[in-house]
Design goal:
Layout: H1 3-23, H2 25-52, H3 60-79, H4 81-109, H5 113-135, H6 137-140, H7 144-169
Helix pairs in contact: 1-7, 2-3, 2-4, 2-7, 3-4, 4-5
């Protein structure tokens, strides 16, 4: 199979998944929260294994504490994905605000004026998205994760499909 065909097929699958996620962002958000809970649970089990296999015992307590926290968060997200989705949406909103502010500050201090506008614009968009999340938090908290994932899958799919078409022409 040619690389261009693989890019194109992968891109089309991601486009379909992105459209499906955007079509039903609530279900996608719950599924994403459950998946994140499973990852936390797996990380907690691995960390617990490290705690029990720490030969010198110097870091056993830290490994054990981190394992316990990961397992608790994992079980909580799996057992109650609705409240987990709302909590993760708040984290995403805060992350957008913080990363946007950081990009904005870096952009304003950047010596290269040609690149400055890109960072300033990127930071401003992230801050705007964070503010929009919190401005309508009651209405969108259970759907924002699915919507963002759908947009990301769609963008990745279009990008990979474009790479597939471009590599066929060359």
């Amino acid at each position: 199979m040619r690389v261009s065909t693989l890019f194109l097929m992968t891109g089309l699958v991601l486009i379909v998944l992105g459209v499906a996620a955007i079509t039903n962002p609530f279900a996608t958000s719950l599924a994403l929260t459950t998946f994140v809970g499973i990852l936390f649970l797996i990380a907690g089990v691995v960390q617990a294994w490290l705690a029990f296999n720490d030969r010198d015992g110097a870091h056993r307590a830290w490994h054990g504490l981190i394992a316990l926290l990961n397992i608790v968060v994992g079980v909580w997200l799996i057992a109650d994905p609705m409240s987990g989705t709302v909590s993760l949406a708040a984290v995403v909103g805060v992350l957008f605000l913080l990363m946007g502010a950081l990009r904005l500050l870096i952009g304003l201090r950047l010596a290269a004026p040609r690149l400055r506008w890109m960072l300033v614009l990127s930071g401003a968009v992230s801050i705007l998205l964070g503010l929009l999340i919190f401005a309508a938090f009651d209405q969108i908290a259970t759907q924002i994760l699915g919507l963002l994932l759908g947009i990301q899958l769609l963008a990745d799919g279009v990008g990979l499909a474009a790479l597939g078409f471009a590599s066929r022409d060359s």
